[in-house]
Amino acid sequence: MYLENILPFAHHLLRGRLKNGDAALDGTAGNGHDTLLLAQCVGGGKVWAFDVQPQALQQTRRRLEEAGVSAELICDGHEKLADYVDRPLTAAVFNFGWLPGGDKTCTTQAATSVAALSAAVSLLEESGLLVAVLYPGHEAGFAEAQSVEEWAAALPQQQFAVLKYVFTNRQNRPPYLLAIEKLRQK
Predict the structure, then answer these.
(1) Cα distance between residue 62 and residue 17, in whole Å
(2) Domains in the chain and their CATH numbers?
(3) Does residue 99 register a pLDDT over 70?
(4) Among candidates 165, 170, 168, 87, which has minimal Cα distance to 133?
(5) Rounded to two decimals, what is the model's pTM?
């Protein structure tokens, strides 16, 4: 297929924006796939990765160690990211939902996700990129996706460009991506 699926497209966007020395954020570390990509892209830069589940951070740490890269792993809610991130971000990624292979009742929530996204876009440098993958196929994910879309639609167009990438002919409310580029500071 020529059109990339959601996660490969997210990684394509991030690879195209990040370079050695940049600062990046993974707001949902999960099993560490996105954190690993960020760490490989920024090289000597800095990556912060958040998750509220210790087992997720253990899996992420193992993945990073195997690849010989590092990131600051933070066991705290992503809505508190501004308490930890100490410099402007070139890119941020959020892969909402639950930990793959984990407890499906432990999911990201609309209110904290919107708070985290708001904090992340405020930390983006000019031309910075935020990528959010949403999963509306389950009840909590549907509510979260609606809240995130409402939040993203309200971002000022003079300051942000917002792209929605979705396969509209897939059934059962398929996952999709929002990409947000910060065009200029306030």
Answers:
(1) 26
(2) 6-182 (3.40.50.150)
(3) no
(4) 165
(5) 0.96
